[in-house]
Each structure stands twice: as structure tokens, then as C-alpha cells.
Amino acid sequence: DVVVVGSANLDTTLRVPRVPVAGETLLATGSSSTPGGKGANQAVAAAVAGARVRFVGAVGQDRAGEVIKSILQQHGVDLSSLQLLGTAPTGTATVVVDDDGENLIVVDPGANAGLAPQHVHAALDGLEVPVLLCQLEVPLDTVRAAATHQAARCVVLNPAPMGSAEALAEVLPLVDVLVPNQSELAQLTGGGPAPITLEEVGDRVSRLTYAGAVVVTLGAQGAAVFPAAGAPPTHVPAPTVDAIDTSGAGDVFCGVLAHGLSQGEELEEATRRAVVLAARSTTFRGAQMPLAGRS
Ligand code: ADP
Q1: Which of 130, 194, 281, 295 could lock 262 by a disulfide, CB 3.0 to 4.6 Å apart?
Q2: Which atom of ligand 1 is nearest to the CA of 183?
Q3: Ligand 1 near 220 CB (within 6 A)
Q4: At what angle are helices 267-281 and 38-49 packed, to 10 degrees?
């Protein structure tokens, strides 16, 4: 079983001839609406991989919230801990994209910002949770409440979006498996250019002030696994695929990894399956697994 504590959005993508400049009004040539939010994306991925998933998140009492609920329900995700907040609209990302793929994105966290520690307690008290999976699109206090909760046997954190490395440092000691991508690993270890080469990854990981396991996702290069307690790292290459849309690949990776760990798989074994399914998810558009959206 996997419990995901995180965000859910209904995103709007507007296609434009070119990205507008400040003060300009442009007509879109088309628009679409896709479910997203890292929490919901990862919950769907874990469910598609075969996990029983409970989603702890928040949406508004609006049409967008209904759409998100119905998509998560179609994937069999348990929504008994989903908060329907009357105080804020469902979160949304508005993406403006031109034909060259140039884009501009504005995120309104909306109800995601209202997911509070008390909601986490209400959801987790009395449970036993083999794997608790979190990201950073809900308040850090809420992530901390989840990671410290005694229900959680194994805490997996995808530190995205990174925000402040200092704030995150407080949560890191509570984490069992940290899953950054290359740019998040760079930000966690003092910046510098991303992408980080495979050769540099080990050096960067050794600079983390953190004792748990780390799995670094490396895009087309797959992932690098650093077990806790200093066991030697392993590189898990990704299969070569015809990638057409890599958005959300990291979310698929995290959801599948969490499922594997909840089944008692070793970290490397769980990573192998996550790498394969994440690679496959880049071969079709709109990256939640079969049905849903982008992060
Ligand atoms: P994020 O989406 O967070 O930036 P990555 O780009 O590291 O994360 O991708 C996550 C995973 O998705 C990788 O570990 C890999 O398994 C898969 N993946 C992403 N891009 C590709 C690609 N071009 N070819 C094959 N696999 C990919």
C-alpha cells in the first residue's frame, strides 16, 4: 500500500503563435485541460503499477475538483482523505506554449496551499503505511507532519519543486529514500550547472548532509541508486525510446518506485521497473500514465 500526500491541479494549456510579452494580448489557437499536480500524477502512476493507493490532498468545491476526483477514482485511488475545501479553488497551472515549444507557466496553488498538518493526521492516525510518498507542492509543514507520522514505515520524498534547500534540510532527516532529478540534486548541493554527468552524481550525493538512500533520476540515462549506509551505488540505464513528451516522467518514476518498495522489493529492483515505465511514459503525450496530465 502507498499513501501519497501531495498536490492535485487541473491545468490549462493555451496554444499561441508566440509567447506574449508583458502588456500584450494574444488570441490562443487552441486550448486543452489536463489533470496534473505532482501528487495526483504520482498517485495515478502507483495505482497503474498495481498499488493500493490513498491520496491525501486538497481540491476546491468546483468543477475542476470534480474532474480530478473522477480521474483518480477511475484509477481506483482511495479518496477518503481528499479534502474538499470551500475556501480556495482547485489548484491550476496555466501553460502558454508556442509551436516551437517555448512556454510560460503560472501556477496558482489554490486548495493545495490549504492542505494542512491536521488533514494528514486525520488521514494517517491509526493506519500502518508501508510507503508514504511526498513532494513539495503542498506546505512544508504538511510534508513534515506526514514524514514524522508514526504510521509511515518508509518515507519517500521527491524534492520537487525544490524551493529553498535550507527549508528542506529540516525535513531530510525524516526521509528514507530521496528521489531528486539532476537539477534538484544540483540545487541541494550548492548549485552549479545541471545536467550533472553520471560521473559527477556520486560526488554530489556524497555532499548531501543526509544519511538515507538516494535515487537520482537522470533523464535518458536512467537512474543512479545509492543505498543507505554507504553500500556501493548502481547505475540503472533507461531503455532507448522515442521520447515525444518527457513532462511527468519523474512523477511516473516516483509512483512506480513507491509501489515496488511497498511490495518489499529492494531499492535497485524497484528502480529497474520505475526506469522502464517512466521511459515508456515519454512515448505518449500528456504524461500521467494512460489517462492523465503533466507536472
Ligand atoms: P524529471 O521528469 O523529474 O525531470 P527525469 O528527466 O530524470 O525526471 O526522468 C525521470 C525518468 O524518466 C528517468 O529516470 C527515465 O527512466 C525516464 N526518462 C525521462 N526521459 C527519458 C528519455 N528521453 N528516454 C528514456 N527515458 C527517459
Answers
A1: 130
A2: 4
A3: yes
A4: 110
Residue 59 CA neighbour count, 13 Å, CB half: 26
Contact 39, 7 (CB under 8 A): yes
Residue nearest to atom 6 of ligand 1 (CA): 219
Tell me the CA distances in angstroms from 255 to 6, 131, 167, 186, 248, one per residue in order.
12, 11, 24, 22, 11
Is the ipTM here above 0.90? yes
pTM for the full predicted model: 0.94
Kindly list the distances between the CA atom of residue 217 and the CA atoms of 146, 198, 257, in Å, as whole numbers in the listed order. Answer: 23, 10, 11
Cα(263) to centroid(ligand 1), Å: 23
Cell of 94: 496555466
Would residue 251 show up in a list of annotated catalytic residues for this protein?
yes
The tens digit of pLDDT for each residue in 77-133 reads 999 999 999 999 999 999 999 988 888 989 999 999 999 999 999 999 999 999 999
The DSSP code sequence of 121-132 is HHHHTT--BSEE
Residue 239: CA count within 13 A, CB half-sphere: 14
221 C-beta closer than 6 A to ligand 1: no
Q: Which residue has the cell 506526514?
A: 146
Supply the residue whose CA is at minimum distance from atom 26 of ligand 1.
Answer: 279
Contact 41, 293 (CB under 8 A): yes
CA of 195 to the centre of ligand 1 (A): 12
Q: What are phi and psi of 169, to 5 degrees?
A: -55, -30
Specify which residues 178 forms β-bridges with: 157, 214
- Summarised one tens digit per residue, pLDDT across range 50-62 is 999 999 999 999 9
